[in-house]
């Protein structure tokens, strides 16, 4: 039977349960995984910045311990979230992706952005509250656009200096205040490669916890222009044939899904499934 995971706000006073520990170096792991008995984690010499109940795994409450720094324990290591994304256990990645977003939010909102006073965790909702000015902060979600631009049997791919060596991907960028997703798409494509697009079609979305994006995936057709790469943002950009593609992003990413979907449709192959 497949394990069941549901997110939930759980009062830290709830006894028992499982827990994950996260530091700036990643999640604590041993040979058996990343979920530990909560009472065992409590006994370790960790400096805890925040504790949040994040959901239920097969009925057991799961808690996140957001730590100030990593503590080295014999037989244990700290592993980054991207490592888990590339492995086969998608349920584990789903739990950790949610934990990472809650942990980032908890770390960044310990103090009020308005008056600087310490904020307190609200136990009945996912919020931090400042008693001094009654400000509430909720977990941040940053909408961003990601698009595959195509021209018949060719797709436009680019690489950033931050990418893994050799990997090319779709174009992407964050929405600005006052923009629709479509307006963001047109602007980002124009800024990054100086190309115009048409026939914009929404494909799907994906939570991207690096650190707190909601990726809105689109397909768009080439409408004109020559590639001119944006300095410092785009290291290389070019048209690739669907018959001869470069190294691509991780299979679970929406960037890879957009590419695989278009290639499948052009070549008459089975269509991939959008990662959850």
TrEMBL record:
It comes from the Bacteria. Residues 139-262 form the Nudix hydrolase domain. It is an enzyme of class 3 (hydrolase). Signal peptide: none annotated. The keyword rRNA processing does not apply. A divalent metal cation 3 binds at residues 188, 192, 233. Substrate binds at residues 82, 125, 138, 206-213, 255. Keywords: Hydrolase, Magnesium, Manganese, Metal-binding, NAD, Zinc. A motif (Nudix box) lies at residues 173-194. This is NAD-capped RNA hydrolase NudC. The lineage of its organism: Bacteria, Pseudomonadati, Pseudomonadota, Gammaproteobacteria, Pseudomonadales.
